[in-house]
Amino acid sequence: MPSEVITLQLGQCGNQIGFEFWKKLCAEHGISSEGVLEDFATEGVDRKDVFFYQADDEHYIPRAVLLDLEPRVINTIMNSPYAKLYNPENIYLSKHGGGAGNNWGSGYSHGERLFDEIFDIIDREAEGSENLEAFTLCHSIAGGTGSGLGSYMLERISERYPKKLVQTYSVFPNLAESSDVVVQPYNSLLTLKRLTLNADCVVVLDNTALNRIATDRLHIETPSFTQINSLVSTIMSASTATLRYPSYMNNDLIGLVAPLIPTPRLHFLMTGYTPLTNDHEETSVRKTTVLDVMRRLLQPQNMMVSTTPDRNGSHCYTSILNIIQGEVDPTQIHKSLQRIRERKLAQFIPWGPASIQVALSRKSPYVTTSHRVSGLMLANHTSISTLFARTLQQFDKLRKREAFLDQFRKEAMFQDSLDEMDDSRDVIQNLVDEYTAATKSDYLSWGMNRPGSSAAGAQTSA
Amino acid sequence: MIREMLFMLSGQPGALFVLTDNGQFEMCSGIADVGLCQSEKEIIKPLLKIGSNVAFLSNFAEEIKSDSLYLDVVQQSISKYVTEFQEELVEIEIAILEGSEILGITGIHSRIMPFTLQLEYLKELVDAIKLQKGNCLLIDTIQHYRDHCGVSRIIATFQEIYNTCLKVLHKQLVSWMLFGKLLDPYNEFFIQVDDSKRFVITGEMIPSCLTVSLAQQVLFVGESVVALTEAQDLSEEDWEFMGKLQKIPFENVVEIIQQCRDQMAKRLWNLVTEKDRLNRSLNMILNTFLMKKGDIFAYFIRQTENIFDGQFSSSQLASNQFALQQRLMNSLKKYLDEDETEIERLSMNITPDTPGQGWDRVFLDYKTEWPLGVLIFTPETMETYNRIFRLLLNLRRIQLNLNGLWKNLALLDKPVLELRWNLQHILIHLSQYIQIDVIEVQKSIMDRQIDQCHDFDKFRAAHANFLVVIAAQTFLHVPAMQACFKDLIHLALKFCGLFKNDRPKAFLSVVAELNLEFERLMQLLFSLLNGMYQQSSGTTMEPIAQLLLRLDFNYYLTEGLQRKTNQLLEI
């Protein structure tokens, strides 16, 4: 049972990051852009079957479904050297081609209409796996397709495949620059509700932080989409390293996720990665030891999420998993943990045991890097709620003015009322409250006296 | 009278001189003093002593007990000295008969004077020898007498006996080191075969002309020769080199033991590393017994989860074992990048007659490529690996079970979530400690020791140390810790069991009980660890501190236990 993972790429952003992800995976496993194993790829220590399957002609084919409502990005993929990598039957482009117009409502109702066609593909792909473990959804929460269609799919998948894990890589919009998508706060909030209720684990990829890292750490003045997406694909591939290069633990997705997530709602993860390099300055990395890597992973400037500075100092880690790749001296691991604890570099929850889990993983033998050791941190930190609180603020600003609601009212879901928006707001407010409660020692009795508050389904705030 | 005297001196009792029960000659009473002058009377006493000694020694020399190669040669030597003396007596008698010399008792006395001391010393030596079992340690006894004697003639006698014994040792050494055969019908050599048919050194049997380290080298050379002979891998060169052992005196043998060892270590290294088999076996063990290749066992555990369901009866043993073996093979073939023949060296079995539930009774059997099984991966070694394997397998099994609940738990209450979180935390960080702080660290130490090493014996020492440290740091020899781990695993299984069928009525109260049980176990675990920490020092302290750091990184558990204790004190 390979515990297969099916990747669903939605919308422009989802398909762009998905494209970079598969490029990276191919390189790491020695698979050519056409899906053929390269002659040099003879070291049989990796596992390809989690993310690829082999067609009759020995071609490796990604377990990926590519969906979009407008053709631009998918056409780019189909004109790239990787065109032949994908199963053409797994690429779905809406025939209208008009897109969702950056409107969550439009994306969502497209989903309702396209349900049969989309799930034909997904069901076929699921049946083709021996022991499907999870769906991974790549999308952005701010636009129309990734957010709207993505929300719809999350609801349907959790109904249709209740036993499968649903993980997402969700790109949050860059708040540092003004967006041309004025309804972004509406889209984000409506999507966040589904990420809260219908996903098991959300890896938050925050464009604000990604751009900051590209400018500050990689010294790129105006980072391009490709540069940002390459950062994202680095994170995606590193976070799956233990599935693809199995060692003692974390060989399946649940094994990565369950130790990080204590209670159902607190499932939004931050990531950090070090050392970061770009193509132009390979030499900017100094020596990298395990201690360097583990220490840098705890520095806020390496986090791929832009949280609001914590004035009270109450926010804390619930859990941390560091995936360390490369040549590691294992004696360094304990020394690093000791140092981190002595210097109080990480503050943990006061209501339960917590620690830093370390997974040692191999590096691909086919990709040369200038550094000996690299590390990815997957962390559950309560300060991620500040990101949701910001979304709430922006939402409230628009909602108070009843701004830009007309295009939503055109969609069936909002024709009669805007209850769905207010309901989503409640869910997210509740999420923020729960994260705040998780910073306190009585978290485990939080919400206990509210009926149905810990059961699944929509929450209503007290 | 003179004839009687000579007869007595040759150790034979007669009419005049009789042997008492304690082996001493004395003159028959009544006939005493006949025709003896005063000086003769004085002399008769030592003559009686000589006669007694001769009787004693010839008795010893003629005893047919032969259960010792060493005693044999000592007997022969003694016999020789007795004969020499008796020949002297014959000459004296002839001289008397021929009348060529007039010899009275004093005359006889002065002729045999030179022998007196020798016979006396020999008797003492034989007395001492008789007190010990015949074996190569006789050499030491003889050496002791030689070194504590000031008379050069006697020293030479002892040296002669010493040399004959040394020759026996020499033969035994050569037979062992050259042919790998124990020339030792009476178990007198310091190398013996133990119950499990292995060659071992009996430390107290090493004669002082060798040292413990030399003895180990001797053992190693012989074992290597056994291995290399079986592999038909001894070359002309080896024979020529080792053949020297036969031709040179013992002193030189000692000098070249070291060289033989080095030669054999190199040869054996080449043998075991041929076709990379040593590395291969080591990796196989690391990936399976120490479960480094986690996906193999994730698959295996899922495939076998129900095998031990229900009562574990002996009638099901064979079918269970068959099922386990089949699934192990499937898992290995699927996830281990190895040849089928190599994979099929491994099998999973169930011990038929030990108590405990199914999973506590499984063990892996690894038929290593010859001669690794004889030399390195011996039955004892593999038993230690198996004990670690059972612990790791259980920990892994529980983790997978807990993970399997995770989607379910999303619907459940906080006390359930709390217990899952706590159990998971302990299991993961205990596993992390064993896998990274212990196994990976020790593996890197071993790798460093054997890097660039072309010496089999050094490898063997490094590997032995690797396993000893892992066993110690996983507390394999601390029954209280093992019991604690077992209880923890049992508790976690109970918890997982709650979700297998419909939710029982008293669900939440069972969970509350388990929560209490968990607290009790943590209290026990921490007091055990703290107790051991306080009693340890230096290198034994470090691993305990490492485990404590892993388990209690955010001080929650110890502070929690403190809180609980305070609460109890307040009540």
UniProtKB/TrEMBL annotation, chain A:
Molecular functions (GO terms): GTP binding
Predominant subcellular localization, coarse grouping: cytoplasm
Any matching Pfam family: Tubulin
Any single GO BP term: cytoplasmic microtubule organization
Function per UniProt: Tubulin is the major constituent of microtubules, protein filaments consisting of alpha- and beta-tubulin heterodimers. Gamma-tubulin is a key component of the gamma-tubulin ring complex (gTuRC) which mediates microtubule nucleation. The gTuRC regulates the minus-end nucleation of alpha-beta tubulin heterodimers that grow into microtubule protafilaments, a critical step in centrosome duplication and spindle formation.
Similarity comment text for this entry: Belongs to the tubulin family.
Quaternary data: Interacts with Ote.
Record protein name field: Tubulin gamma chain
TrEMBL record, chain B:
Pfam families xrefs: GCP_C_terminal (PF04130), GCP_N_terminal (PF17681)
Gene Ontology CC terms, in alphabetical order: gamma-tubulin complex; microtubule; spindle pole
UniProt subcellular location: Cytoplasm, Cytoskeleton, Microtubule organizing center
Gene3D superfamilies cross-referenced by the UniProt entry: Gamma-tubulin complex, C-terminal domain
InterPro entries: GCP, GCP_C, GCP_C_sf, GCP_N
Keywords per UniProt: Cytoplasm, Cytoskeleton, Microtubule
GO biological process: one example: cytoplasmic microtubule organization
Annotated Gamma tubulin complex component C-terminal domain residues: 280-556
Record GO terms (molecular function): gamma-tubulin binding; microtubule minus-end binding
Protein origin, superkingdom: Eukaryota
Domain Gamma tubulin complex component protein N-terminal: 2-275
Similarity comment: family membership: Belongs to the TUBGCP family.
UniProt protein name: Gamma-tubulin complex component
Source organism of the structure: Daphnia magna
Taxonomic lineage: Eukaryota, Metazoa, Ecdysozoa, Arthropoda, Crustacea
